[in-house]
Amino acid sequence: MAWALAAHAELAETATGYGHFITVNELAERVQETSGVHTEAPTRTWMDAILRKVARRCHSAGEPPLTALCVRQNQTVGDTYRYVLELAGLPIPDDLELHAAYARWQCYQHFGAGMPADGGIPPLTPKVAARRRVSTATTAAAQPEPEPQATRARMCGQCFIQLPASGICHYCG
Q: For 29-49, how does the pLDDT look when each residue is reduced to its tens digit (9 = 90+)?
Protein backbone atom coordinates (compact mmCIF):
# COMPACT_ATOMS: atom_id res chain seq x y z
CA MET A 1 0.00 0.00 0.00
CA ALA A 2 2.89 2.39 0.76
CA TRP A 3 4.20 1.94 -2.78
CA ALA A 4 0.82 2.67 -4.35
CA LEU A 5 0.43 5.86 -2.31
CA ALA A 6 3.95 6.95 -3.18
CA ALA A 7 3.38 6.12 -6.87
CA HIS A 8 0.17 8.17 -6.94
CA ALA A 9 1.95 11.13 -5.32
CA GLU A 10 4.90 10.91 -7.75
CA LEU A 11 2.62 10.67 -10.77
CA ALA A 12 0.48 13.59 -9.53
CA GLU A 13 3.68 15.63 -9.15
CA THR A 14 4.76 14.61 -12.67
CA ALA A 15 1.39 15.80 -13.98
CA THR A 16 2.08 19.35 -12.77
CA GLY A 17 4.46 19.85 -15.70
CA TYR A 18 2.95 20.01 -19.18
CA GLY A 19 4.51 17.33 -21.39
CA HIS A 20 6.18 15.54 -18.47
CA PHE A 21 6.17 11.77 -18.06
CA ILE A 22 8.21 9.21 -16.12
CA THR A 23 9.60 5.78 -16.97
CA VAL A 24 8.59 2.70 -15.03
CA ASN A 25 12.15 2.28 -13.70
CA GLU A 26 12.37 5.92 -12.57
CA LEU A 27 9.01 5.63 -10.85
CA ALA A 28 10.06 2.38 -9.16
CA GLU A 29 13.19 4.06 -7.75
CA ARG A 30 11.23 7.09 -6.51
CA VAL A 31 8.52 4.91 -4.97
CA GLN A 32 11.07 2.94 -2.99
CA GLU A 33 12.93 6.07 -1.96
CA THR A 34 9.79 7.96 -0.93
CA SER A 35 8.16 5.05 0.90
CA GLY A 36 11.35 3.81 2.54
CA VAL A 37 10.39 0.28 1.50
CA HIS A 38 13.00 -1.31 -0.77
CA THR A 39 13.20 -4.55 -2.72
CA GLU A 40 15.79 -6.39 -4.75
CA ALA A 41 13.07 -7.95 -6.91
CA PRO A 42 13.12 -6.89 -10.57
CA THR A 43 10.86 -3.95 -11.26
CA ARG A 44 8.89 -5.89 -13.89
CA THR A 45 7.70 -8.31 -11.18
CA TRP A 46 5.94 -5.73 -9.01
CA MET A 47 5.38 -2.39 -10.76
CA ASP A 48 2.39 -3.54 -12.81
CA ALA A 49 0.53 -4.32 -9.57
CA ILE A 50 1.35 -0.85 -8.21
CA LEU A 51 0.22 0.86 -11.40
CA ARG A 52 -3.03 -1.11 -11.31
CA LYS A 53 -3.66 0.11 -7.76
CA VAL A 54 -3.01 3.68 -8.86
CA ALA A 55 -5.36 3.21 -11.83
CA ARG A 56 -8.12 1.92 -9.53
CA ARG A 57 -7.61 4.84 -7.13
CA CYS A 58 -7.80 7.38 -9.97
CA HIS A 59 -10.88 5.69 -11.41
CA SER A 60 -12.66 5.63 -8.02
CA ALA A 61 -11.76 9.26 -7.29
CA GLY A 62 -12.86 10.48 -10.72
CA GLU A 63 -9.32 11.59 -11.54
CA PRO A 64 -7.79 11.22 -14.98
CA PRO A 65 -5.61 8.10 -15.27
CA LEU A 66 -2.21 9.09 -13.88
CA THR A 67 -0.77 5.81 -15.10
CA ALA A 68 -0.77 7.30 -18.63
CA LEU A 69 2.24 9.33 -17.43
CA CYS A 70 4.25 6.16 -16.74
CA VAL A 71 5.98 4.77 -19.81
CA ARG A 72 8.46 2.04 -20.61
CA GLN A 73 12.07 2.78 -21.61
CA ASN A 74 10.98 3.13 -25.24
CA GLN A 75 8.43 5.73 -24.04
CA THR A 76 5.35 3.67 -24.90
CA VAL A 77 2.62 2.93 -22.40
CA GLY A 78 2.38 -0.72 -23.34
CA ASP A 79 -0.10 -3.24 -22.00
CA THR A 80 -0.23 -1.80 -18.48
CA TYR A 81 -2.22 1.16 -19.77
CA ARG A 82 -4.89 -1.16 -21.14
CA TYR A 83 -6.03 -1.77 -17.56
CA VAL A 84 -7.21 1.87 -17.39
CA LEU A 85 -9.52 1.22 -20.32
CA GLU A 86 -10.75 -2.06 -18.86
CA LEU A 87 -11.61 -0.27 -15.59
CA ALA A 88 -13.62 2.31 -17.48
CA GLY A 89 -15.31 -0.35 -19.60
CA LEU A 90 -13.91 1.21 -22.77
CA PRO A 91 -12.85 -0.68 -25.89
CA ILE A 92 -9.12 -0.92 -26.58
CA PRO A 93 -8.40 1.61 -29.34
CA ASP A 94 -6.27 0.84 -32.38
CA ASP A 95 -3.89 3.63 -31.32
CA LEU A 96 -3.17 3.08 -27.63
CA GLU A 97 -0.38 5.69 -27.62
CA LEU A 98 -2.67 8.42 -28.92
CA HIS A 99 -5.30 7.51 -26.33
CA ALA A 100 -2.65 7.72 -23.61
CA ALA A 101 -1.55 11.13 -24.95
CA TYR A 102 -5.11 12.42 -24.47
CA ALA A 103 -5.15 10.93 -20.96
CA ARG A 104 -1.83 12.66 -20.14
CA TRP A 105 -3.31 15.93 -21.42
CA GLN A 106 -6.26 15.47 -19.03
CA CYS A 107 -3.80 14.81 -16.19
CA TYR A 108 -1.92 18.03 -16.95
CA GLN A 109 -5.16 20.01 -16.89
CA HIS A 110 -6.44 18.34 -13.73
CA PHE A 111 -3.24 18.66 -11.73
CA GLY A 112 -2.56 22.28 -12.68
CA ALA A 113 0.24 22.10 -15.22
CA GLY A 114 1.01 25.33 -17.00
CA MET A 115 -0.92 24.70 -20.20
CA PRO A 116 -0.09 26.46 -23.47
CA ALA A 117 -2.29 29.49 -24.22
CA ASP A 118 -4.10 27.57 -26.96
CA GLY A 119 -4.72 24.63 -24.62
CA GLY A 120 -1.99 22.57 -26.23
CA ILE A 121 -2.34 19.30 -28.00
CA PRO A 122 -2.23 15.88 -26.41
CA PRO A 123 1.51 15.24 -26.49
CA LEU A 124 2.98 11.96 -27.62
CA THR A 125 6.24 11.11 -25.90
CA PRO A 126 9.29 12.25 -27.91
CA LYS A 127 10.37 8.74 -28.95
CA VAL A 128 6.87 7.76 -30.07
CA ALA A 129 6.48 11.04 -31.99
CA ALA A 130 9.89 10.54 -33.65
CA ARG A 131 9.02 6.98 -34.69
CA ARG A 132 5.78 8.22 -36.21
CA ARG A 133 7.56 10.97 -38.15
CA VAL A 134 10.05 8.43 -39.52
CA SER A 135 7.25 5.98 -40.32
CA THR A 136 5.25 8.67 -42.11
CA ALA A 137 8.29 9.84 -44.08
CA THR A 138 9.20 6.26 -45.00
CA THR A 139 5.65 5.51 -46.10
CA ALA A 140 5.51 8.68 -48.19
CA ALA A 141 8.90 7.92 -49.78
CA ALA A 142 7.94 4.31 -50.50
CA GLN A 143 4.78 5.26 -52.35
CA PRO A 144 5.36 5.19 -56.10
CA GLU A 145 4.67 8.21 -58.20
CA PRO A 146 1.17 7.94 -59.60
CA GLU A 147 1.07 6.80 -63.19
CA PRO A 148 0.03 9.56 -65.54
CA GLN A 149 -3.53 8.97 -66.51
CA ALA A 150 -3.81 7.66 -70.01
CA THR A 151 -5.82 10.03 -72.09
CA ARG A 152 -8.57 8.46 -74.05
CA ALA A 153 -7.75 8.35 -77.74
CA ARG A 154 -10.06 10.33 -79.96
CA MET A 155 -12.08 8.09 -82.24
CA CYS A 156 -13.79 8.68 -85.54
CA GLY A 157 -17.52 8.98 -84.95
CA GLN A 158 -18.33 7.05 -88.14
CA CYS A 159 -15.86 4.17 -88.38
CA PHE A 160 -14.62 4.15 -84.75
CA ILE A 161 -10.94 4.08 -85.67
CA GLN A 162 -8.49 6.11 -83.64
CA LEU A 163 -7.95 9.52 -85.18
CA PRO A 164 -4.45 10.79 -85.97
CA ALA A 165 -3.10 13.92 -84.32
CA SER A 166 -4.69 16.02 -87.09
CA GLY A 167 -8.15 14.85 -85.94
CA ILE A 168 -9.16 13.95 -89.52
CA CYS A 169 -10.01 10.34 -90.27
CA HIS A 170 -7.97 8.97 -93.19
CA TYR A 171 -10.74 6.51 -94.02
CA CYS A 172 -13.81 8.65 -93.78
CA GLY A 173 -12.13 11.81 -94.96
A: 999 999 999 999 999 899 999
